[in-house]
């Protein structure tokens, strides 16, 4: 059994971080029940390809699980069951599959029986999507058990509770019927038989439910009367009763789900109780939205996939996106990645300096399961002294460096980085090396096409000429601070950029307003905002920065970018 720092335990018991808030509820639950194992569950509907929302549910549940393990000091074993509802009938053909017409004859068949439209070893659509989900989860190193509804139903794992559902059919109907309209009430049954003739999941009323025999009688699609046992995978439950049945059958302690389930949570709980279970602790999270503010959907394929995010940002940035404010709706689109990357770098950089209270409120603790790695820092401006200030290279700075270097070759980018921090390499800083690759991909696909360079006006042009001359007077190895101060001194002499209201400003030495930096970013980088100029110029090199200024003033940057845009059209 692992040992826990007493200061960590004290901080965990009082932490306001949402995983600890949820974990404390779960601790109280197990204290009431006397259970000696905690079962966490997440659900997945394989009607379409797995999306980031599915990953987020597992990630967030894992964070609660880790918090629970700390609060219980590892004394209570935990399990995470990822459950796939692959016995559901395919209600519609997803938009994002090859040859959708080939799947049309299989509508309403269990997803685990629908032929696989993709290339690969899996024989069915449901099992293909299950395999994709497992691949995603394995990539992130989750500790989980995978469960298939088809396997559980057909193997008899649910038989005892299904027989109980037949015995308590009237009680279940009393819960469900008031939630339905008159037409649906007339045909509703919690049991969905699988037609022995067509293999389709049938939404038909029951002619008879024999609780003693554990069987149901109904009219098949051809009108013939059929009697089937509710056991052995010949019958499944409607999705709302299925939620409660699964909780009762497996004795689930914790499950989170999206806001679209919130109104039905009471139904799930009541059916779980009818079937002899104790409803688990819940956590309801907000839904993800695409670039247009619409809910992301597996069948539509809108929003981001996990693979797409990992093309442009490290997996820790995705985990941070999932951790932050889960009860607020968030746009899940490409433009959120750079901020997520740099926020993660900042949180990781500050972790070691914090006490336990603040560490448990730091997303880095939850992202890394309580053991964040040391941050990869570089000495600023090539300073080799042991006490030289060290900082992390930001994603925003790398994006701008990729742009002005005009290269997708990582070796070219590393040449600039090594000038800034001698001795640093891809081998010594592997996470930074990966970040360089992400920056190249993101810049190529999103930043460069959106750049909008503009010409400098007369005042700006004169200021840039003065900046060029001032940079020329600096040594080639000038520190980022020296370069930043030089740029500020140039701006202080220009009335347009003077800010006498700034803190510490005097008539002789005014502050500098944001218009100066806006001009730097728009004219030199084609952006509305950018990295700290001193850090950027130190990495890019003073000589290269001066050449960039010259190219901007001559119109070369505008002409070059217009040629790029023309080539894309």
Q: What can you tell me about this protein's structure?
A:
This protein is an alpha/beta fold and 569 residues long. The protein has two domains: 1-157 and 286-363, 3-Layer(aba) Sandwich (Rossmann fold); 379-568, no CATH class. Helix 10 links the parallel strand 9 (254-258) and strand 10. The strands form six sheets. The chain has a five-stranded parallel sheet with strand order 3-2-1-9-10. A three-stranded antiparallel sheet has the order 5-6-7, covered by helices on one side. The chain has a two-stranded antiparallel ribbon with strand order 4-8. Helices cover 47% and strands 10% of the residues.
- Reported by name, the CATH topology of the largest domain is Rossmann fold
Tell me the strand order in the biggest sheet: 3-2-1-9-10
Count of discrete domains: 2
Strand content: 5-15%
Features:
single chain; 569 residues; Rossmann fold; 2 domains; five-stranded parallel beta sheet; 24 helices
List the helices and strands and how they pair.
Blueprint: H1 6-14, H2 18-33, E1 38-44, H3 52-71, E2 78-84, H4 125-139, E3 145-148, H5 149-155, H6 159-167, H7 169-176, H8 182-187, E4 191-193, E5 208-210, E6 215-219, E7 225-229, E8 235-237, H9 239-250, E9 254-258, H10 265-274, E10 281-285, E11 288-289, H11 306-312, H12 315-323, E12 330-331, H13 337-351, H14 356-360, H15 363-367, E13 378-379, E14 390-391, H16 395-405, H17 410-420, H18 430-450, H19 458-472, H20 480-492, E15 498-499, E16 511-512, H21 514-525, H22 533-540, H23 542-553, H24 556-568
Parallel strand pairs: 1-2, 1-9, 2-3, 9-10, 11-12
Antiparallel strand pairs: 4-8, 5-6, 6-7, 13-14, 15-16
Helix pairs in contact: 2-3, 7-10, 9-10, 12-13, 16-18, 16-22, 19-20, 19-23, 20-22, 22-23
